[in-house]
Design a protein that fits this description.
The complex is a heterodimer of chains A (about 260) and B (about 260). By secondary structure, chain A is of the alpha/beta class. Chain A has 8 helices and 10 strands. Classes of the chains: A alpha/beta (about 260), B mainly alpha (about 260). At the A-B interface, strand 6 and helix 3 of A face helix 8, helix 9 and helix 12 of B.
Chain lengths: ~260, ~260
């Protein structure tokens, strides 16, 4: 990681956040009193049973949803809406289909009013970073699922956000591609020194990627445990230590799942 | 050219068969040009009427242009409003749904009273025909913008409604707008005869067909004008497709074709 991270990557704090949805079926409490602190440059994974509100938490940090109670603070300032200082990669393919790879990556820069030649230069840099040199003028329909998500990552990084939010970004690609993308993401993370907040339902993915794993309970979601993953990088997926941690996390998740009654 | 003929061989073959059958039926079975003029007589009529035809096509295109362009200019902003803002949709939709089923022909008296015997009266009937398809397809486009694209836009700094419409919703809806316009063009053209029938001008394809040839029982001329009406529409449609669809929607290839 580079020097000066504390300036580039700002500290994220989630303070006492509760989220309640008013739906047609009634009031649903999605999250209950979440407290979380993410250090600059940290790679944090959030796992939990489906419907535990992990995506909701990420969306609130992105500014796409608002907490019912509590605050989300980035660098001392409360989050009140979406902003390019928080990049987001969605699970669904989210490229603008009418724009080429280059124009997709340029989108955020264009919104900031950066002139065309500078835009192009920055976009090319990030397209290179995700290994898609030569695909600048392709349309999304010409790309594979994994390539689409790489473009989405490049697009999220192009505006130089201080934190990268990822909502199961590799959930819809095949297993092999997924492994490759994980490795590439780690390289990008190490090269850029960004803070990454990564939501996943895969224990394997979390153990391979994260500095720290946050385990959430079934609905209403709350934090059950924060686990440091101390394995040195580059990690081996099949190492003994990885298996031990995986086992512990799986146990935690199963006991959470039992509470929801799915296994009963 | 050779390749084109090979690609369309079956269609061309059937076309020639139908024309031959028509010629044979008219000449040897019906034997009454008032009921069915021969194909050759119709083609000869087109040749005879060539000077008149050009004037009539020009006037009809004028009426069509007035109707279609106003329909587009009114429908598009309304479609953006209805497609993007649920409130506007709820307010306007009932009115649209009441007006939509009224046949354009029923508007003729209104057109006469409002615009008298002018080109605008004919344009108004064509406007009614073209307006609803353009409006409905376009607002469907704006309503269907995937949530994930809107949210991606927001996260990347496209915050207010104006920017979101310009950079996310509008490009997404463009193919819908194009389809609506194409359908609207078709319906609008069908209204040309009705619009000119009541004599807003002393020329125009519909006026000539209905007010002159039909009254004189010149059926070969009537059928000649019918064929021209079809051919002009075909050309307009092809022109629109080559100008708009093929160029604008390279990115849609993977999705629709």
């Amino acid at each position: 990681m580079e020097e000066g991270d504390s300036e580039m990557n700002r500290r994220l704090e989630v303070r006492g956040v509760t989220k309640v949805f008013n739906t047609e079926e009634g009031v649903i409490k999605a999250l209950e009193n979440i407290n979380l602190e993410v250090k600059p440059g940290e790679f944090l994974c959030i796992i939990g049973p489906s419907g535990c509100g992990k995506t909701t938490l990420l969306r609130m940090i992105a500014g796409l949803d608002y907490p019912t109670r509590g605050k989300i603070i980035l660098d001392g300032k409360e989050v009140r809406g979406p902003s390019p200082d928080r990049g987001m990669v969605f699970q669904e393919f989210s490229l603008f289909p009418w724009r080429t790879v280059l124009k997709n990556v340029e989108f955020g820069l264009q919104m900031q009013g950066i002139d065309a030649s500078r835009r192009r230069e920055i976009a090319k840099k990030y397209i290179g970073l995700v290994g898609l040199d030569g695909f600048e003028n392709h349309y999304p329909y010409e790309l594979s699922g994994g390539m689409k998500q790489r473009v989405a990552i490049a697009r999220a990084l192009a505006t130089e956000p201080s934190i990268l939010l990822m909502d199961e970004p590799f959930g819809s690609v095949d297993a092999q591609t997924r492994n490759i993308l994980q490795e590439e993401l780690l390289q990008i993370w190490q090269r850029t020194g960004k803070t990454v907040l990564f939501v996943t339902h895969s224990v394997d993915e979390a153990v391979y990627l994260a500095d720290r794993v946050v385990v959430m309970s079934a609905r209403p979601g709350s934090i059950v445990e924060c686990m440091k993953i101390g394995i040195v990088r580059p990690r081996k997926r099949t190492s003994m230590e990885a298996n031990v941690i995986r086992e512990r996390l799986l146990r935690l998740l199963i006991s959470e799942r039992k509470k929801t009654g799915i296994f009963r | 050219m050779k390749a084109w003929i090979r690609g369309n061989a079956q269609g061309l073959g059937l076309l020639i068969a139908v024309i031959t059958l028509w010629e044979f039926m008219a000449g040897y079975v019906v034997k009454n040009p008032l009921i069915l003029p021969r194909f050759s007589a119709v083609i000869f009529s087109i040749y005879m009427l060539r000077h008149l035809l050009i004037e009539d096509i020009a006037i009809s295109l004028l009426h069509f242009g007035i109707g279609l362009s106003t329909a587009f200019l009114v429908a598009l902003p309304l479609a953006i409003g209805m497609g993007w803002f649920q409130k506007i949709f709820r307010m306007v939709d009932p009115i649209i749904e009441i007006l939509r089923p009224i046949p354009p022909l029923a508007w003729i008296p209104i057109a006469m009273v409002w615009f008298h015997l002018t080109h605008y009266a004919a344009g108004f009937i064509i406007f009614i025909g073209a307006f609803f398809p353009i409006l409905i397809d376009s607002y469907t486009g704006f309503r269907n913008v995937p949530k994930v694209l809107v949210e991606t836009g927001k996260v990347l700094g496209c915050i207010n409604a104006r920017k979101l419409i310009k950079y996310v919703a509008f490009p997404y809806a463009l193919p819908f707008i194009a389809t609506g316009t194409r359908v609207g063009m078709g319906v609008g053209w069908m209204c040309v005869v009705a619009a000119e029938m009541f004599g807003v001008s002393e020329s125009g394809l519909g006026y000539r067909l209905f007010q002159k040839f039909y009254f004189l029982h010149q059926m070969d001329y009537v059928v000649a004008y019918m064929l021209v009406l079809g051919l002009v529409a075909l050309c307009l449609d092809r022109l629109f497709r080559s100008l708009v669809e093929e160029r604008l929607f390279k990115w849609k290839k993977g999705i629709v074709k």
